[in-house]
Design a protein that fits this description.
Largest sheet: 4 strands, mixed
GO molecular function, one term: proton-transporting ATPase activity, rotational mechanism
Structural class: alpha+beta
CATH topology of the largest domain: hypothetical protein PF0899 fold
Strand order of the largest sheet: 2-1-3-4
Distance between the termini: 154 Å
Strand content: 5-15%
Protein name: ATP synthase subunit b
Number of strands: 4
Order of helices and strands: HHHHEHEEEH
Helix content: over 70%
Keywords: ATP synthesis, Cell membrane, CF(0), Coiled coil, Hydrogen ion transport, Ion transport, Membrane, Transmembrane, Transmembrane helix, Transport
Organism: Alkalibacterium subtropicum
Family: Belongs to the ATPase B chain family.
Length: about 250
């Protein structure tokens, strides 16, 4: 078999011609298409990266907002709890003050009722005492009873020295006041002055006053001593005992 150099050279020339034609007609367009495709892919990648960055920024903003919302929620709950606690304390203080006010009002009402009861008791005891005295002294007239009380008062004045241990102070007494449940007659005033003459050496003047609440009685007021002869003191002692008994039983 002989080799034809002409055919070989012709084949080589044909190959280069075909290669040139392919390069011109096929390779460059394909290469251009591939470059365009690569460029589109790069642009798409760049756009995707940009959108990813934007999405990440949005996610960061959303997370920040969620964090702020959580913080605001905690703050709102804390404020609500604080306000609720303060309101509860205010209401509790208001209730306590109202209860204390009602308690004081109730106690005052009780004290007022006690005072009213004492006044009614004093009045009733006074009336009852006179009725009892009138019943016991069945045959004694009111004038006779009045005279007996006055005579007892005069007797007490004459015995002042026996009831007062410090006679030196008694000798210094100068201001004397006499109270009676009614106006005294001149004869009664004279009896009082005579009863005191032997007791008070420096006696200058006696001041007379009337006090209807004495209930058939008389009182002598010195600067340091007092002499009582009246039903009111007796009623007061009975009243104290009754009130004490009521308080202990109540």
């Amino acid at each position: 078999m002989t080799i034809s150099w002409f055919e070989i050279i012709a084949q080589i020339i044909n190959f280069f011609i075909i290669l040139f034609i392919l390069q011109r007609l096929l390779y460059k367009p394909v290469l251009k298409v591939m470059e365009q495709r690569q460029e589109r892919i790069q642009k798409a990648q760049i756009e995707a990266d940009r959108k990813m960055r934007e999405a990440q920024k949005l996610m960061d903003r959303y997370e920040k907002k969620i964090e702020n919302i959580q913080k605001e929620r905690v703050d709102i709950l804390d404020d609500a709890r604080t306000q609720a606690q303060q309101k509860r304390e205010r209401l509790l203080n208001d209730y306590i003050m109202e209860a204390e006010s009602k308690r004081h009002a109730y106690l005052k009402e009780i004290e007022d009722e006690k005072d009213n009861f004492k006044r009614r008791l004093r009045q009733n005891l006074g009336e009852s005492a006179v009725k009892i005295a009138a019943h016991i002294l069945n045959m004694i007239s009111y004038k006779e009873l009045e005279s007996e009380v006055f005579n007892t008062f005069i007797l007490n004045l004459r015995n002042v020295k026996q009831n007062i241990p410090d006679l030196e102070d008694l000798k210094k007494e100068q201001h004397v006041q006499v109270r009676s449940y009614r106006d005294l007659s001149q004869h009664e005033k004279t009896s009082i002055e005579e009863a005191l003459k032997g007791q008070l050496r420096s006696l200058e003047e006696i001041h007379y006053e009337t006090d209807p609440e004495l209930i058939l009685g008389y009182e002598l007021f010195l600067e340091t001593y007092t002499v009582h002869t009246n039903i009111r003191n007796y009623l007061t002692e009975i009243e104290k005992e009754i009130i004490k008994s009521l308080d202990s039983n109540g």
